[in-house]
Amino acid sequence: MTTTARATVQHEDDRLRVTRWDFDPGQSTGRHVHEYDYVVVPVTDGRTDVITPDGTVTSSQLRAGESYAREAGAEHEVVNAGSLPLSFVEVEVKRV
Fold it and tell me: Quick check: 2 pLDDT over 80?
């Protein structure tokens, strides 16, 4: 099994990038820094662990269709901490 989640860019132009992330249990995005403000729209219910560079782990329960937004600059790794596959769509705002 691959340890990296599958990222599929569904749309990209000069204003937005829309990426679908699909994770099997235990898979991760890998550590990254968000260049843009973004919105996450869970496609499935699931549990994530978000790991920051200092090793802090924050667990979250995602609910399908219940979105959340974050500002650019966030540095972390997202792991599917549940026992089922997890999917969400990330919409990055490149410019307004």
Answer: no
